[in-house]
């Protein structure tokens, strides 16, 4: 508490310091999030090909993913249909759809998942809808093999839970899944077809059912990775120097702040030393103050980061940004250590204050 | 014997030369004795007090306070023990601005590892006429009130040796009387020994001995009228 009071002695100085820390934290956070997203997109947990699980579907709409596959003769061969969602999807989270976002029919079946058995999935785990599970005779904890085209060996997924969902389809959990609940999307990876051909196919199919697709996105994996690499590179180029400048400024400001403290508080420290305070008492008090300054920067940093990520990920087509606790911990641990290291030199000098020299005649 | 100073010397560098401030100072302070150190400005009174308080190290000589010994080569831990064993009041009331008067008064306990005697501290506030100001910050105190808080802080640990540098220098007559009255009472009733640097004639009259620093040496100047030791 006293550390906070000490930090608040010069509000303007503190504000500038906290501001530079906030910019540094936010920029670092964004860079790491974008790099992480790009990295996850290259992982094999993103369905790279055809999903060969076949089971009957029970959808409330005339347009279901399975029907799409079946009616286009694509099932088990050229198109992967997967649902991606973040690891920490919450009970009762609403499903938001995109991909065919302009299709009204799609929006109508945005159900809420209710966990009937088991738990929410982690990486390499599946949530299976009740209806599908009945047909597959699956149970929680059971391993299901999923075959992808072009691969000899199936990928094994464990059934983490069984959900009550009108969308009777298989749900794959991957860590790069969209934030804000469960999305379902159409990832179409064509081997023998070009993206354009597949897109035409999708459009034709939707038209034949009297539906309009304003924006059908068909992504091939390589193209998707390339665009993400470009995006993450672009963000890094913009945000990298920002983070660097902000963090260098913050370091210098911390140094300046504690160097000035050394001059301003020499007499106070001297009297504390005269009362029996050891060097470590003084050093710990000052380092606590440095930590308090840093902790004051944490809530606004988190607020700004979350707001920016929400903004970045807010578009229907870019719902891959989401704040990761691991990244937050890395950023805060790193920048916290930087603040402490910056303060260390002046703090040690302050702790070495000789009371006799400071308490001489005024 | 409360405090014994043997062959104490202290010198400072001034430009390229060494200036000797104190030379072979000898001092024996008996238990319950109240000693005043006077002398012209710059004669070394404050230096002597700082050495007695353990906030400066002598170049030569030794100091004994009970079982504690202090010399040029004493380790830091001995210095800290010494500082915690004496009550020291600086000539200006250096209070920590972020702490209240009460928190400032309890500051010695933070570093001393000793449980605060809150009733004692409260009594000191009352005796010095600053009851009710405990929750004020230093900026909300007058100079005289701040001096009295600093005095409470110096006396809070109930040390048997009290050192003060011009304790009444910034007080009006009423304040000075209250402060000196308390110090005298503590000296008489609790047997607290004291070394006070002052020019205040009120204090000079009531000390057991008055010494002056002349050319780096302590000289017995006046023997006071107090003969209660």
UniProtKB/TrEMBL annotation, chain A:
| Keyword Metal-binding applies | no
Q: How does it sit in the membrane?
A: Multi-pass membrane protein
A Pfam cross-reference name: FtsX
Q: What is its main location?
A: membrane
Q: Where are the transmembrane segments?
A: 12-35, 233-260, 281-307, 327-351
What name appears for this protein in its UniProt entry? ABC3 transporter permease C-terminal domain-containing protein
User: Cellular component GO terms, alphabetically?
Assistant: plasma membrane
InterPro entries the UniProt entry points to = ABC3_permease_C (IPR003838), Macrolide_Exporter_MacB (IPR050250)
Location in the cell reads:
Cell membrane
Q: Which family does it belong to?
A: Belongs to the ABC-4 integral membrane protein family.
Q: Which organism is it from?
A: Calidithermus terrae
Q: Which UniProt keywords apply?
A: Cell membrane, Membrane, Transmembrane, Transmembrane helix
- Lineage, uppermost ranks: Bacteria, Thermotogati, Deinococcota, Deinococci, Thermales
Give residue ranges for domain ABC3 transporter permease C-terminal: 243-354
């Amino acid at each position: 508490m006293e550390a906070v009071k000490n930090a608040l002695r010069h509000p303007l100085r503190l504000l500038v310091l906290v501001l530079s820390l906030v910019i540094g934290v936010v920029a670092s956070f964004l860079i790491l999030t974008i790099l992480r997203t790009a990295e996850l997109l290259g992982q094999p947990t993103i369905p790279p090909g055809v999903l060969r699980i076949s089971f009957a579907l029970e959808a409330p709409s005339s347009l279901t993913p399975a029907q799409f596959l079946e009616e286009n003769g694509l099932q088990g061969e050229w198109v992967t249909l997967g649902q991606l969602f973040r690891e920490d999807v919450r009970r009762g989270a609403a499903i938001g759809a995109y991909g065919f976002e302009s299709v009204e029919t799609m929006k109508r079946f945005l159900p809420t998942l209710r966990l009937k058995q088991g738990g929410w999935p982690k990486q390499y785990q599946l949530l299976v809808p009740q209806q599908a599970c009945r047909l597959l005779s699956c149970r929680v904890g059971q391993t299901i093999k999923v075959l992808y085209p072009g691969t000899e060996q199936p990928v094994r997924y464990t059934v983490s839970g069984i959900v009550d969902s009108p969308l009777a389809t298989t749900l794959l959990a991957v860590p790069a899944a969209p934030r804000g609940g469960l999305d379902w999307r159409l990832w179409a990876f064509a081997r023998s077809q070009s993206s354009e051909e597949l897109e035409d196919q999708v459009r034709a199919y939707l038209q034949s059912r009297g539906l309009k697709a304003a924006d059908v996105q068909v992504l091939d994996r390589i193209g998707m990775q390339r665009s993400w690499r470009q995006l993450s590179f672009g963000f890094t180029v913009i945000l990298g120097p920002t983070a660097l400048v902000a963090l260098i400024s913050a370091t210098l400001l911390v140094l300046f702040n504690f160097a000035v403290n050394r001059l301003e508080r020499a007499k106070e420290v001297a009297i504390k030393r005269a009362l029996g305070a050891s060097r470590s008492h003084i050093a710990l008090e000052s380092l606590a103050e440095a930590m308090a300054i840093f902790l004051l920067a944490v809530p606004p940093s988190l607020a700004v980061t979350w707001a920016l990520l929400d903004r970045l990920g807010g578009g229907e087509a870019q719902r891959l940004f989401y704040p990761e606790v691991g990244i937050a911990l890395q950023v805060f641990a790193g920048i916290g250590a930087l603040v402490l290291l910056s303060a260390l030199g002046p703090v040690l000098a302050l702790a070495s204050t000789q009371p006799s020299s400071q308490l001489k005649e005024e | 014997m409360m405090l014994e100073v043997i062959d104490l010397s202290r010198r400072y560098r001034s430009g390229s030369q060494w200036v000797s401030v104190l030379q072979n100072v000898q001092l024996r302070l008996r238990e319950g004795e109240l000693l005043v150190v006077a002398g012209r400005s710059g004669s070394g009174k404050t230096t002597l007090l700082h050495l007695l308080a353990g906030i400066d190290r002598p170049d030569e000589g030794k100091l004994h306070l009970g079982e504690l010994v202090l010399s040029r080569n004493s380790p830091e831990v001995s210095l800290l023990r010494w500082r915690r064993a004496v009550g020291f009041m600086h000539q200006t009331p250096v209070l920590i601005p972020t702490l209240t008067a009460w928190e400032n008064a309890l500051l010695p306990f933070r570093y001393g590892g000793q449980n605060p005697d809150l009733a004692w501290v409260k009594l000191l506030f009352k005796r010095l006429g600053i009851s009710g100001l405990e929750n004020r910050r230093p900026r909300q105190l007058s100079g005289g009130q701040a001096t009295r808080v600093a005095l409470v802080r110096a006396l809070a640990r109930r040390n048997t040796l009290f050192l003060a540098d011009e304790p009444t220098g910034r007080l009006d007559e009423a304040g000075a009387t209250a402060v000196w009255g308390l110090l005298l009472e503590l000296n008489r009733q609790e047997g607290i020994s004291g070394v006070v640097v002052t020019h205040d004639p009120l204090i000079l009259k009531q000390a057991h001995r008055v010494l002056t620093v002349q050319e780096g040496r302590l000289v017995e100047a006046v023997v006071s009228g107090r003969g209660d030791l």
